[in-house]
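Any chance you could type out a protein's amino acid sequence plus the matching backbone structure tokens because I've never seen that pairing?

——
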Amino acid sequence: MSRQRGVSSRSRSAGPITLTGRGGIVVMFGAGVVCGLLSRWLGVGLLAGAGFAIGCALAAFATRPADLLTLVVSPPLVFFAATVTVVFTTTLGNGSLLRGMTVGLLTALAATAPWLFFGTVLVVVICLARGLMTNVRELQDKLIGVRLFEKEENENPVRWDESPTTTQERRRTHHGDVD
């Protein structure tokens, strides 16, 4: 009986679903591919772009705050990958693959480019409201810290004036000797 109480109390206390940055990218990609395929098969061009934008919004709301920076930079590449996947899937078996991919990809990208921009802006706006600037500041602090403690390349240059001057000293320092 106590086991059931533990399970039920855990399920009641579970918060909202949070995704990692990769999970958010998968949501955007999945929405783009599914809606792109439905758009091609049903002949509704609006569905591909709107589905991608909805996937972007869902990913931006569900991704944990620590991974917002990863999510914000991803929509263009995810959009391109989803479009390539959709065009490749629908072009297979329909004549020349190279010609079908080229024409299909250029046509799909041209037709849905405004949705790419809308989805990207949507992700940025939602992530800004959820704390993106905190991530940017943390990254900036890490980069500054790395630069402060990074050794200079010329910190310990070879000093030619410290080389052995006498023949005796040269013989003692052989190339294979280790100090």
Helices lie at 2-13, 21-42, 45-62, 68-72, 75-91, 97-130, 132-149, 167-172. Confidence is low (pLDDT under 50) at residues 5-11.
